[in-house]
């Protein structure tokens, strides 16, 4: 009997079993959310079946109309697209500068930036509110976008700097000899090679901005400027919550992020494969 082979087979079986359990624990809440969105209020409380007896697709129409999801949805799309764009644009420039350029106070400013990761967002609500008020940015889309962008910059710069540090300097030196400028190297060489890291940051920041709720409540008072998470509060009653409509609203809010992930995952997989081969 080949004991080493048997040992590897048992180890692989146990590993796959654990991974299946973890996957089911992640997928089941999503399945339950979609299933509940197609039930009636009575069925949610009285029946424990995973599938609805009658598929009530009208819950989605009702949820979209009742919560005024059209306005909230467009607001979230705007905040997410613009916020992610500026986070990626600024962080790639800053990270490349920290990784490849030499300037006074480089290490100090980098570690000072990283130190901001230790401060939780709720801990800055009061000073943030006063700052935006003094700058006349309170209750404006610009004020909320600036908060989202600044919130995502520190980690993005930290991640991208490590990635740019690993890029071979010989490629940059060859480009400089050929007459390419520093910005040309950043745009034509560094950015294309950093696609896996950028894809990861796009998903992380899109997920953070799309699901953010508390910061929007602090900065905004006008409901017409609120993101989609504010629309979900319509279904939360004082005594009774309309769970089918709430689940339908959550499903609507989840779909865009799932689409973004499915579109960007190929770049992340390439990055993981490249990292594994490099190691």
Write the layout of secondary structure elements.
Elements: H1 3-37, H2 41-46, H3 58-66, H4 69-100, H5 106-115, H6 125-134, H7 141-165, H8 169-177, H9 182-193, H10 195-211, H11 214-219, H12 228-231, H13 243-278
Helix pairs in contact: 1-13, 3-13, 4-7, 4-10, 7-10, 10-13
Structure in words:
By secondary structure, the protein is mostly helical. The protein has a single domain (59-278), classed as MetI-like fold, CATH 1.10.3720.10. It is 76% helix and 0% strand. It contains 13 helices and no strands. The chain has helices at residues 3-37, 41-46, 58-66, 69-100, 106-115, 125-134, 141-165, 169-177, 182-193, 195-211, 214-219, 228-231, 243-278. Helix 7 (141-165) packs antiparallel against helix 10 and helix 10 (195-211) packs antiparallel against helix 13 (243-278). The chain is globular.
Brief summary:
By secondary structure, the protein is an all-alpha fold. Helix content is 76%, strand content 0%. It contains 13 helices and no strands.
Instruction: Just give the CATH class.
Output: Mainly Alpha
**SSE topology string:** HHHHHHHHHHHHH
From the alpha carbons, calculate the radius of gyration and give it in angstroms: 24 Å
Category by helix and strand content:
mainly alpha
CATH-defined superfamily = MetI-like
Defining traits:
MetI-like fold; 76% helix; disordered C terminus; 279 residues; mainly alpha
């Amino acid at each position: 009997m080949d004991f080493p082979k048997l040992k590897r087979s048992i180890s692989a079986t146990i590993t796959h079993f654990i991974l299946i359990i973890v996957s089911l624990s992640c997928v089941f809440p999503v399945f339950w959310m979609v299933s509940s969105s197609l039930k009636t209020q009575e069925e949610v409380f009285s029946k424990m079946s995973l599938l609805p007896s009658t598929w009530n697709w009208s819950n989605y129409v009702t949820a979209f109309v009742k919560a005024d999801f059209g306005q909230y949805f467009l607001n979230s799309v705007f905040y997410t697209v613009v916020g992610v764009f500026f986070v990626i644009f600024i962080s790639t420039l800053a990270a490349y500068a920290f990784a490849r350029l030499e300037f006074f106070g480089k290490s100090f400013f980098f570690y000072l930036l990283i130190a901001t990761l230790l401060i939780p967002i709720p801990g800055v609500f009061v000073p943030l509110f006063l700052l935006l008020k003094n700058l006349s940015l309170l209750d404006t889309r610009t004020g909320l976008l600036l908060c989202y962008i600044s919130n995502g910059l520190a980690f993005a710069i930290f991640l991208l700097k490590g990635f740019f540090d690993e890029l071979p300097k010989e490629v940059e030196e060859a480009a400089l000899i050929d007459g390419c400028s520093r910005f040309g190297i950043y745009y034509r060489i560094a950015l294309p090679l950093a696609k896996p890291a950028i894809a990861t940051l796009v998903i992380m920041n899109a997920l953070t901005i799309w699901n953010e709720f508390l910061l929007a409540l602090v900065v905004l008072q006008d409901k017409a400027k609120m993101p989609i998470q504010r629309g979900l509060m319509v279904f939360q009653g004082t005594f009774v919550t309309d769970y089918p409509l709430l689940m339908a609203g959550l499903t609507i809010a989840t779909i865009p992020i799932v689409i973004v992930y499915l579109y960007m995952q190929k770049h992340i997989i390439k990055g993981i494969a490249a990292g594994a081969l490099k190691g």
